[in-house]
From TrEMBL:
Annotated GO MF terms: peptide-methionine (S)-S-oxide reductase activity
Catalytic activity of the protein: L-methionyl-[protein] + [thioredoxin]-disulfide + H2O = L-methionyl-(S)-S-oxide-[protein] + [thioredoxin]-dithiol; [thioredoxin]-disulfide + L-methionine + H2O = L-methionine (S)-S-oxide + [thioredoxin]-dithiol
Lineage, uppermost ranks: Bacteria, Pseudomonadati, Bacteroidota, Sphingobacteriia, Sphingobacteriales
InterPro entries: Met_Sox_Rdtase_MsrA_dom, Met_Sox_Rdtase_MsrA_sf
Originating species: Mucilaginibacter calamicampi
Catalytic site: C46
Residues spanning the signal sequence: 1-20
Ranges in a coiled coil: none
Name of the protein: Peptide methionine sulfoxide reductase MsrA
Family, similarity comment: Belongs to the MsrA Met sulfoxide reductase family.
Length: 216
């Protein structure tokens, strides 16, 4: 996976002197969907910001950071970083469809990152950082295509959306230390300079979809 000088500098600022032995690398269990609730799977670059952004939306009850879109079962972060698994860093969003619709989630997703850059988000480059939505039904696919047309027509972005729209296959939970990383490491350079701007971008774009505590 290609790494820019900026990426390496920010990564060092993010992890500091931490090493693998100081992090809980247990792969988290992916919960089942509760009765009356729904689930959606998105990829929009580094899942630290993605997990935070989607968790701030009304009706969203849980967001798991993990991997989707590839063929290797139960991949680790190290596996995905090889760019050989086909997986993208992704989030699985558990939500109440009576409070927020799938279309609203998809709309927020498109404003929580840059969906016009192919296999890249800021300093992060590679297919594991691609923009993707994994639909579960033909109806969800139609919603995604509808929203893409609307966002493109709005000219919010200078270029067209290049987000991959693919059928959902599987989602695998990421390591425990990745869960909630954004909130637990606000002092890290990568979070301050890469993750926070993405979350703020979504807040500004869809304030009506935010939980009350994030409407500022």
């Amino acid at each position: 996976m290609k790494r820019s000088i900026l990426y390496i500098a920010l990564l060092l600022m993010s992890f500091g002197c931490a090493n693998a032995q100081e992090q809980d690398e247990t792969l988290v269990r992916v919960p089942a969907v509760k009765a009356g609730k729904a689930v959606a799977t998105f990829a929009s670059g580094c899942f630290w910001a993605s997990q935070e952004a989607m968790s701030e939306l009304k009706g969203v009850e849980q967001v798991i950071a993990g991997y989707s879109g590839g063929k290797l079962p139960n991949p680790s972060y190290a596996d995905v970083c090889t760019e050989e698994t086909g997986h993208a860093e992704a989030v699985q969003v558990y939500y109440d469809p009576k409070v927020i619709s799938y279309e609203q989630l998809v709309t927020a997703f498109f404003y929580a990152h840059d969906p016009t850059t192919l296999n890249r988000q800021g300093p992060d480059e590679g297919t594991s950082y691609r923009s993707a939505i994994f639909y579960r039904t033909p109806a969800e696919k139609e919603v995604i295509q509808k929203v893409i047309k609307e966002v493109n027509a709005s000219k919010h972005y200078k270029g067209p959306i290049v987000t991959q729209v693919a059928a959902y296959n599987a989602f695998y939970g990421g390591e425990a230390y990745h869960q909630g990383y954004y909130r637990e490491h606000q002092d890290r350079g990568y979070i301050r300079t890469v993750s926070v701007p993405k979350v703020m971008k979504m807040r500004k774009a869809v304030p009506e979809l935010l939980k009350p505590e994030f409407k500022k």
